[in-house]
């Protein structure tokens, strides 16, 4: 049974979490015997720019968006522009794919399936859309996905709208999509605390990825990240 170590960062600035991810990703590239890490986090309001973003993805100037109190950060993940903020459950899955399956399409599909199965735990029926990545409740997106993979070591993951302020999505075309809306677990009338949702995510992860999760502290995560610093 593979062991994946897990930690809940709580509320953390996007840049700090991004820097930790980059270091852990490098650590995995140097240590192929390690299966990986699963981190949960909640970010202050921030728009992140994926490698495929377009100028029209923002509905206002970036200066205006920043003046409204949002951070704007350039990321190395795939996809367009997306939003992270309070009330959103963000999961960063950093693994050596050789311990699972060296197949990028499988990796993204499996992450989508993981979210679909977790939403079933709270009696929510969700689906995929053929044209777009992510998880949907009919024609409203509830979960965005984005990944970056280097030498079969992954980073980034999913952003599941829990009690998210959906008005914040009005500044952008989320993930470059204009014809559909955005929803959340709260908007769907489902009431489960964040800690319960994370427990569902953990249990489904262990079952679907055939792993055992082992909790580590924030101090341990930072120590591991420091091993890549010369």
Automatic annotation (TrEMBL):
* One GO term (biological process): protein lipoylation
Q: What class of enzyme is it?
A: transferase
Give the metabolic or biological pathway. Answer: Protein modification; protein lipoylation via endogenous pathway; protein N(6)-(lipoyl)lysine from octanoyl-[acyl-carrier-protein]: step 1/2
Q: Where is the BPL/LPL catalytic domain?
A: 32-213
Write out the GO MF terms.
Answer: lipoyl(octanoyl) transferase activity
Query: Would you indicate the residue range of the signal peptide?
Result: none
Keywords for this entry? Acyltransferase, Cytoplasm, Transferase
Give its E.C. classification number. 2.3.1.181
Query: Which residues does the record give as substrate binding sites?
Result: 77-84, 144-146, 157-159
A GO CC term attached to the entry: cytoplasm
Query: Keyword Transferase: yes or no?
Result: yes
Q: Which domain of life is it from?
A: Bacteria
Which residues does the Swiss-Prot or TrEMBL record annotate as the active site? 175
Q: Which NCBIfam families match?
A: lipB (TIGR00214)
Q: Which family does it belong to?
A: Belongs to the LipB family.
Give the protein's biological function.
Answer: Catalyzes the transfer of endogenously produced octanoic acid from octanoyl-acyl-carrier-protein onto the lipoyl domains of lipoate-dependent enzymes. Lipoyl-ACP can also act as a substrate although octanoyl-ACP is likely to be the physiological substrate.
Q: What is this protein called?
A: Octanoyltransferase
State the species of origin: Tindallia magadiensis
Report the gene name.
Answer: lipB
């Amino acid at each position: 049974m593979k062991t994946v170590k897990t930690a809940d960062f709580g509320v953390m600035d996007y840049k700090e979490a991004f820097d930790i991810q980059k270091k852990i990703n490098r650590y995995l590239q140097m240590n192929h015997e390690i299966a990986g890490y699963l981190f949960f986090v909640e970010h202050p309001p921030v728009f992140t720019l994926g490698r495929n973003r377009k100028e029209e993805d923002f509905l206002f100037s970036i200066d205006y968006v920043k003046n409204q109190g949002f951070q704007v950060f350039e990321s190395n993940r795939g996809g367009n522009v997306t939003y992270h903020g309070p009330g959103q459950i963000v999961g960063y899955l950093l693994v050596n794919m050789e311990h699972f399956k060296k197949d990028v399409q499988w990796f993204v599909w499996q992450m989508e399936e993981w979210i679909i199965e977790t939403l079933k735990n709270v009696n929510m029926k969700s689906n995929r859309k053929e044209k777009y990545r992510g998880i949907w409740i009919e024609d409203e997106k509830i979960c965005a996905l984005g990944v970056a993979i280097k030498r079969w070591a992954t980073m980034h993951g999913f952003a599941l709208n829990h009690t998210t302020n959906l008005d914040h999505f009005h500044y952008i075309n989320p993930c470059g999509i204009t014809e559909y809306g955005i929803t959340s677990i709260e908007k769907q009338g489902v009431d489960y605390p964040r800690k319960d949702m994370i427990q569902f995510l953990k249990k489904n992860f262990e079952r679907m990825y055939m792993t055992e999760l082992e909790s580590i502290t924030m101090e341990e995560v930072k120590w591991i990240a420091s091993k890549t610093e010369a």
